[in-house]
Amino acid sequence: MTLQEKLRHDLRNSEDPSLRAILRIVLGEIDRQPKKVLTDSEVEWIIKKLIKSEKELLESTGRSTDPAFIALLNLYLPKQLNDDEIEGWIRNNVDFSSLKNKMQAIGIVTKNLGSAVDGKKIKEIILKKF
Fold first, then answer.
1. DSSP annotation of 90
2. Domain regions of the chain by residue span
3. Which of these, 42, 102, 108, 126, could form a disulfide with 38 (CB 3.0-4.6 Å)?
């Protein structure tokens, strides 16, 4: 079952009104895409975009983030690696001496770890630790 199918299935079968409302938002964004059937990574990108825009909206209005909205959206994303796991992977797998610029490591890490890491987090770790 693809992530898009899982979202539709959960919308039909959920009895939680807040989850149903959130799933309607996500599926509305999916339906606005030119392609009607999206890959899991494309659906994950849409969910991440919604989380980011929600955080930005709440920060601009001076309110704290809505933990329920973000927590429910995060249920549909793969588990994110923590800073120590990312740093350990970088130390074991990236040879900075072969790179012209240490920021080139971001591409290597994202290519290998995929959606389990956030590019912004990788950049922060590289700037602080390497």
1. H
2. 3-74, 83-129
3. 42
Using CA atoms, how far apart are residues 20 and 68, in angstroms rounded to an integer?
13
Question: pLDDT band at residue 15, thresholds of 50, 70 and 90?
Answer: very high
Tokens linked to 121? 């987090």
Q: For residue 22, give both structure tokens.
A: 């959130």
Task: Write out the two tokens for 86.
Answer: 């990312």
**CA 68/CA 87 separation, integer angstroms:** 29
Question: What average pLDDT does the structure give for the chain?
Answer: 88
pLDDT score of 23: 95
Q: How far apart are CA 83 and CA 30, in angstroms?
A: 30
Report in angstroms the alpha-carbon separations of 128 from 36, 37, 38, 66: 41, 40, 36, 29
